[in-house]
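quick one, 222 residues, struct below
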Amino acid sequence: MGREADQLEDVSGASGIGEVQGVRDPQVTKEQLIAFEKRVADAFANKQVKGPVHLSGGNEDQLIQIFKDIHPEDWICTFYRNHYHALLHGVPAEKLFQAICDGHSMTLQFPEHRFFSTAIVGGQLSIAVGIAAALKRKDCKRKVWVFCGDMAAMGGAYHEAHQYARMQNLPIYFWIEDNGLSCNTPTYECWGSEWSGVNYKAKKYRYERQYPHVGISQWVQF
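---
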């Protein structure tokens, strides 16, 4: 498929969104992101985590660049692979770790940080559009940033949300995190070809995952 890891498509600012650039200096380093997920993986192996985990890895550099353009008071709507998003948006590491250990990894909610996630594939998309519509009606200067995987971006929920947001000129930006896989099924083999999904409100980056879709490649009997 000619895929290349560590690729940001249509880059015009740090994040690829040309109209918003450089509003934040992320306080979390690549090394800290990797160490946090290693800590979660170890806790999962030691039966400290009361639920499934979907660990991030291989996309640290891309997300650090993207979050440079995300204001601390902007809204984040994301999916079940969300630990890096939470850390980069300012959720304290210990608070996040405790929520994960309590079994909320797939559905992390931190309204005080304007951070929401869902375990439902594509479930965050309509919520993000609704928040963006409310911000526009209130003439608020804040924005919504929504993250989804490449398979979710092929589905109807994504296309409806993106089309409505684009036609209504809502203050929202879509980021597709493309690891080429839907769980363990090659996304573009399912659909027959690759759809870029890229325009002025939607961007995509590619990466190679470092952990399995769910868990840690080790059966843990709780």
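The chain has one domain: 7-206.
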